[in-house]
């Protein structure tokens, strides 16, 4: 039996989780939907991490056709999600944005998502994406291998700060460091654009505390929970127990993210990993639904 076939049983568990909290469902700000051949490449990459024996390092739990992946996430009761996609080279973002606009149109529960990287036409296609109704952007500093403080992006950050459109940004050095990952480049961006609505993916893994510093300094900085606190991430990027009170204080700016479908464990595990922090039901309600619902008006 595949994991997807098992998902019916998992849906019962996931729904029980949010029903117990009295929520109408979940909002997941970090899910990946992208053109089929791009997603296949992402999966090939995770498969290649296998050491060659029969135990893959990063098994993709929800490897299935798009329609089936959508059915699974809806069955979990995720009311609103995103289609995080990102280019690894110049000239690719506009094509991805075209796909994502079409995907959002036929997928009303998906927040229209766009992306960019520093390149000649970036300001014009970001502006077009904003005018087309993009609700959220994804930026990936490690895969795109760029400095987020690159001056080519300065007008883009200004535009997005002005429009108040959140940007989920993978800028921490985990699971793989890049030349421009870590808190330093992003703090240069924020010092120039203090009202920018950045959502730090993976809570900045593994530089959690540096990114908590930024969230404490800048009111519009938020953090997504993607993979953090899980049994998979804790061995190589443990969240410091001392920092738990800071998570409680920032409770209204922490947002559920999962990395569905590219996760090496069942979806429920992310939720259980949050629950076992023992920060309370009020905290869980904010993180799993209310904070993102407020931010996106859904
Ligand atoms: Zn992701």
TrEMBL record:
Pfam families, per database record: Amidohydro_2
Gene Ontology molecular function terms on file: carboxy-lyase activity; hydrolase activity
Keyword Metal-binding: no
GO cellular component term, pick one: cytoplasm
Biological process annotations from GO: secondary metabolic process
Domain of life of the native organism: Bacteria
InterPro entries, A to Z: ACMSD, Amidohydro-rel, Metal_Hydrolase
Keywords on record: Lyase
Matches recorded under Gene3D superfamilies: Metal-dependent hydrolases
Domain annotation Amidohydrolase-related: ranges: 27-297
UniProt protein name: Amidohydrolase
Native source species: Streptomyces alanosinicus
Native organism taxonomy: Bacteria, Bacillati, Actinomycetota, Actinomycetes, Kitasatosporales
């Amino acid at each position: 039996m595949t994991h997807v076939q098992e998902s019916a049983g998992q849906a019962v568990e996931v729904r029980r989780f949010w029903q117990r909290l009295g929520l109408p469902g979940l909002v997941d700000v970090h899910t990946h939907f992208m053109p089929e051949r791009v997603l296949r490449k992402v999966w090939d990459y995770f498969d290649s991490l296998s050491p060659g024996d029969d135990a893959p390092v990063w098994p993709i739990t929800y490897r299935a056709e798009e329609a089936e992946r959508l059915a699974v996430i809806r069955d979990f009761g995720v009311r609103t999600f995103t289609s995080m996609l990102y280019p690894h080279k110049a000239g690719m973002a506009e094509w991805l944005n075209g796909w994502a606009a079409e995907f959002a149109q036929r997928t009303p529960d998906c927040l229209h998502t766009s992306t960019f990287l520093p390149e000649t036409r970036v300001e014009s296609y970001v502006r077009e994406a904003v005018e087309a109704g993009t609700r959220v952007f994804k930026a990936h500093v490690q895969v795109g291998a760029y400095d987020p403080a690159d001056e080519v992006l300065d007008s883009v950050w200004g535009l997005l700060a002005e429009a108040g459109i959140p940007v989920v940004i993978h800028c921490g050095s985990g699971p793989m460091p890049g030349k421009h990952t870590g808190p330093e480049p992003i703090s240069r961006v924020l010092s120039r654009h203090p009202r920018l609505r950045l959502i730090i993916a993976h809570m900045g893994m593994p530089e959690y505390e540096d990114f908590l510093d930024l969230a404490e300094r800048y009111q519009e900085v938020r953090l997504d929970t993607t993979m953090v606190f899980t049994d998979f991430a804790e061995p190589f990027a443990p969240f410091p127990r001392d920092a738990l009170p800071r998570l409680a204080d920032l409770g209204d700016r922490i947002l559920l993210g999962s990395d569905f479908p590219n996760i090496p464990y069942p979806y429920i595990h992310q939720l259980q990993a949050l629950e076992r922090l023992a920060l309370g039901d009020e905290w869980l309600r904010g993180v799993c639904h209310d904070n993102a619902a407020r931010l996106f008006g859904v």
